[in-house]
Design goal:
By secondary structure, the protein is an alpha/beta fold. Helix content is 61%, strand content 8%. A hairpin with a 2-residue loop joins β3 and β4. The protein is globular, with a radius of gyration of 17 Å. The model has no long low-confidence stretch (mean pLDDT 94).
C-alpha cells in the first residue's frame, strides 16, 4: 500500500503567539532562545520525518488526510494536535504523539472508520479518566513506533518523562494490557 505523506511545515507566528492564553506572570523567552530551539527541533525532526509519518499511518491503518500539516512553535503552552502546536521543550516524540492524535481525528473519515473500535476501547476502560482512556490508545501506538525505530533507553525516557497522573496511568495500562492488543482492538476490521 502506497502511503501519501503530508508535508510538514514548521512555522512561527507572532499573531498566534500573541493570541494564545498564558499564565499572567508568564514571560516571553528571549528571541535568541526561541530561534535556537525552533531550528533545533526542525534539525531533529527532518531525519526521522518519513519513518514517523509512515509508521503512524501503517500502525493505525489510516491514511493521512492532509497534504500539509503546519507545526506551530510557540512558548508557554502544553503541546496539542489541532492546530499542531509545540513549545521549546518539545522533541521528536512530542511531535509524533501529536501526529498520532491528528491521524485519529483528521480527516473526519478517519474518525468515522475507527469510531466503533474507539468507543469499544473507551468503554473497556470506562473506569479511567477521559484523558487516561484517550492516551491508552495514543501511547499504545507510540510504543509500537518507539519499539520499531528507537532503543530501550529512549522508550524508558519517553515513558517516565510524563508527569501528568493520567498519562502515567495510561502508560501503566499499555504495559499491563499490551500495546499490540490495544492496537489490534483499535484497527479491527480496517
Amino acid at each position: 500500500m502506497k502511503i501519501n505523506l503530508p508535508k510538514i511545515i514548521f512555522r512561527r507566528s507572532r499573531l498566534y503567539d500573541e493570541a494564545l492564553a498564558r499564565e499572567p506572570d508568564w514571560k516571553k523567552p528571549e528571541e535568541s532562545f526561541m530561534k535556537e530551539h525552533f531550528q533545533k527541533i526542525q534539525d531533529e525532526w527532518k531525519p526521522v520525518e518519513t519513518n514517523m509519518l509512515k509508521a503512524i499511518s501503517s500502525i493505525t491503518k489510516l491514511p493521512w488526510g492532509e497534504k500539509e500539516i503546519v507545526i506551530y512553535f510557540t512558548y508557554g503552552i502544553v503541546p496539542y494536535s489541532d492546530p499542531l502546536t509545540i513549545n521549546p521543550v518539545s522533541n521528536i516524540h512530542t511531535i509524533t504523539h501529536e501526529l498520532i492524535h491528528r491521524i485519529l481525528s483528521r480527516p473526519q473519515e478517519n474518525k468515522e472508520k475507527i469510531k466503533d473500535n474507539w468507543d469499544s476501547l473507551m468503554d473497556e476502560y470506562k473506569d479511567e479518566d477521559q484523558k487516561c482512556r484517550t492516551h491508552i490508545v495514543i501511547h499504545a501506538i507510540h510504543l509500537a513506533i518507539l519499539k520499531k525505530h528507537f532503543d530501550n533507553k529512549t522508550i524508558q525516557e519517553e515513558m517516565i518523562q510524563v508527569k501528568h497522573p493520567d498519562y502515567i496511568r495510561s502508560w501503566e495500562i499499555v504495559k499491563r494490557d499490551g500495546y499490540e492488543i490495544i492496537i489490534l482492538k483499535l484497527t479491527k476490521g480496517l
